[in-house]
Every structure is written in C-alpha cells, then in structure tokens.
Amino acid sequence: MNKNQEQWKIASRYLPGGVCSSARINKGLGSPFYISRASGGKVYDLEGNEYIDLCTSFGSALVGHNHPKVGAALHEAIAMGLMCSYENEAHARLAQRIVEAIPGIEMLRFTLSGTETTYYAVKLAREYTGRTFVVKFEGHFHGFNDYLAYNYWPTREQAWPNITPAVDGLPEYLQQGVIVLPFNDFEAADETLTRRGHEIAAVILEPVNINSGTIYPRPGYLELLRHLTAEKGIVLIFDEILSGFRTGPGCAQAEFGITPDLSTIGKALGAGVPLSAFGGSRKIMEHVSPLGKANHSGTFNAPLFSMMTGNAFFDIISEPGFYENLLGRCQRLYDGIGEIMKRLQFVGRVQHFGARFSFLFGPPAEKEYVLNYQDMIDNQWGLLNRFYKACLCHGVYIHTMQHHGISAMHTDEDVDRALEGIEAALRDVMAEGRGDESGAAAFF
Ligand code: PMP
Predict the structure, then answer these.
(1) Helix 322-343 crosses helix 412-432 at what angle (to 10 degrees)?
(2) What torsion do the CA atoms of 153, 442, 243, 389 make, to the nearest 10 degrees?
(3) Which residues contact 340 (CB under 8 A, 6 or more apart)?
(4) Ligand 1: distance of its center to the CA of 272 in Å?
(5) What's the pLDDT band for 439 if we cut at 50, 70, 90?
(6) Contact between residue 419 and residue 52 where contact means Cβ atoms under 8 Å apart
(7) Candidates 142, 265, 403: which one to mutate for ligand 1, based on the most atoms within 8 Å of Cβ?
(8) First to last CA, the chain
(9) H helices within 265-354, ranges in order?
(10) Closest residue by CA, ligand 1 atom 2
(11) For residue 26, what are the contacts with CB-CB under 8 A and spacing of at least 6?
C-alpha cells in the first residue's frame, strides 16, 4: 500500500470518505489525492513526488501556490495579532480595489465560501424586490446553497424541463421558489421573464458556464438577459466565483461589456486563503443592514488574514505584464493540447476562458458549438477519468472536475512538462482501447 492509500485508510476512520469536502475524491483514482506541500505551479504527494498542478486548488491558486507576497501578507497579519471579528484600514482598502476593478460593484460585503456568497446574494435580491422566485440555469453551479442546488449535473432523464435537486435532503417547498432554464436558449428566457417577470427576484448565472465545460454565452444572450431583467425590475446576478479574474481584473463582465446588478466573486481573490464577496449597485447594496433590512453578519466575516492576502492578490495582479504573461502561458498550453490531439487523431478539444479550461472528449468535441449542459451530457466521463489517472502517472495532477487551470507561477517549462504528460496519458488511454465511457458529470 502506498502512502496515499495508507493515509486514506486513516483519514476514513474520522472523516467521511477520508476528506473534508466531498468533491475532493478524485474519480479517476477512486480516492483522494493527498498533498504534502505545494509551491508555484507544482504539488508534491505524500512520498515527495512532484507533479505539475493543473487543479490549482480548484481555481483558488490563480497567482500560484505560496506566492512570496501572499506569504509576507500572512506574516504581517500574524504580527498584527491575527484578529477576526474586528476591522481596520485593510478592509476598506480591499473593498475599494474591488470596486475600482469590477464594473458592476459599487459596494460589497466580504464572505468566506462561495456557497455562503450566493446564499446572501439571493437573499438580498429577495429582500430588495419583495419577490420570491429565482431563475437559474441548468449546469450552472453556485455552491451547495439550498436555494440554488437544482439541475447541477442531472442525468438526461432528470434534466430540464424537469427540476431536479442536486443533493438529497432539500425540503420540497424550496423547489417552489426555483425556475430552471437551459442556458443560451433565447426563447425560453424571453418567454419566462416576460410572462413571470413580476414574481421573479433574481436571475443568477455563470456568465461563462465553466462548471459544465466552459460554455460561452451566445452573442446577444447576456444582452437579452440584461435587457429583460432591467425591464422587469429583476436583479441580474453574475456568479463570477470561478470566472472572476481569469482574463483580467474586471472579470467576465468587463470582457463581455455587460454590467450585472449583483456579482459574486471568490476563489482567486483570497490567493489560497478563504475569501469571497458579494457586491453590486449602491442602490441594491444599501438594502444590506444596518442601511436596510437584509442582514449579513458573522463572527468570521472578513478575518484580517483574508484581507491581507486579498490586498496581496491585487498587488500581484497589478504588476506590469501579469495578465499578458499568464494568458500567454495559457495559450501555449491550449495550443499544445490541440496540436497533440490533432497529431494523435484523438477526438477531443479544450474550451477555455482565460486561465480556466475544460476537456471535451468524444461527442461534444465533434460539435461546432456547445450550447449548454445538455450538449455536455455525452462527454466521455469514463475515458476522461482514466485519462486523468494516467496523467498522474506521468507527473501531471488534474482533478476529475470539469474545470482546470494554470497559475501565474507556472513557467514555460511547467507547461511543456504538462504537455508531455498529457500526450503520454492520451497515448496510454488510446492504447488501452475503449472501456467503460459511462459515468456522471457530477463531481461529488
Ligand atoms: N459558484 C461557482 C461558480 C463556483 O464555481 C463555486 C465553486 N466551484 C461556488 C460558487 C462555490 O464556491 P465554494 O466552493 O467556495 O463554496
């Protein structure tokens, strides 16, 4: 038994599945992948073996693992007494930097997890509008906030037009408040928002549906949602927890030139430390107590160490050439993967949004345009899981989720090593021949 298996056995005695987050089971391995340390663009297993990390803490390590400026910020927080439940200049400073960077945010509140963030954003929208219903899109993930945990990655039988809870244990009455729509379907959005707009509090979406294969909005689709929500007084929420900061400081909303009423951001922002935020127009944010009636409080809100790393994050992404270098390296990876697949005559491709990307194997890769989650149901999950496992054997760590990425600390050499590992892994799975391609898109 290797150290990973030994650790899994020990951890499983005390932690369900041997992990602290169900998604940390790596479906390719059938177990968690335990890490002894991380540095820059690399992670090390319990035996000290080195891997190029294409998981990047599920997108949180955008600036890299243990960036020196992040380490220095943490030391400073320790020197200041590691306080939580108190506030100082660091809080408003970080808030100001977010407001200056993101078009749709004039005021904000800090939270820790993305789940918590989308929960507060929806509650605020309900309080602001006095309405109940929330529209969400199939295949769009917003954390395990019960209000939105529907049609994350349903089977074809469970999929839209059915509304299917993504987890067990939700009270049936919660489902009464949710409307699920297929992404990129102009008619469905127009019909629903026109007919039921008066009872809808919010429309929430990932502006790029990274969680189901990095699916882009069709030209004009975000514009349509913006137009209809404005007309009907509905709060438009962009969940940018994953898309945020992948292409630039202004997030996806700046890329597409569409300003939502509320935004949720997280992951990359904390540079490896828990930090998220919800924010939006002053008019809506003034409904947060003590200015308004929407409460948002918590002992652990905005602890100093998160404020310090959040400010370090902005220092790092403001360095000259930060995004040029990052995006150039991403392109090197994406071009390289495309070239390998072509050379091996492998039916696959990657779809990417800045520093985050997804693998499409088989049927969806053959489509000219992947429109929404239903086009992704036939992705070859079994083959993908075998591929990810093979990558690990060739020194590249890719988690079995639908999104992967590289960080600003990955070097050209790291990218080249990742490409070598990916090519070797593809050769392995091709040599093995076809196996069980079935499996679910859900990662938990
Ligand atoms: N929203 C989106 C778009 C996400 O991708 C995620 C996490 N992958 C969440 C919300 C939930 O964030 P967290 O894991 O921090 O709760």
Answers:
(1) 20
(2) -150
(3) 346, 419, 422, 423, 426
(4) 14
(5) low
(6) no
(7) 142
(8) 25
(9) 282-285, 304-317, 322-343
(10) 142
(11) 32, 33, 388, 399, 400
Q: How far apart are CA 225 and CA 419, in angstroms?
A: 39
Give the C-alpha separation, 37 to 302, whole Å: 26
Ligand 1 proximity of 266 Cβ (cutoff 6 Å): yes
Nearest-atom number in ligand 1 for the CA of 266 is 15
Q: How far is CA 419 from CA 152, 330, 341, 348, 403, in A?
A: 31, 12, 11, 15, 17
At 183-229, the pLDDT tens digits run 999 999 999 999 999 999 999 999 999 999 999 999 999 999 999 99
Strands 348-353 and 356-361, by their bridges, are antiparallel
User: What interhelical angle do 304-317 and 322-343 show, nearest 10?
Assistant: 80
Beta bridge partners of residue 288, listed in sequence order: 294
Is 143 close to ligand 1, i.e. is its CB under 6 Å away? yes
Buried b (16+ CB within 10 A) or exposed e, 363-372: bbbeeeebbb
Report residue 48 as tokens: 């000290």
Domains and CATH numbers, the chain: 1-32 (no CATH), 68-317 (3.40.640.10), 332-352+365-379+388-403+424-435 (no CATH)
pTM score over 0.70: yes
Ligand 1 pocket check for 244: Cβ under 6 Å = no
- Residue with the two structure tokens 């090390």: 44
Rounded mean pLDDT, 55-63: 98
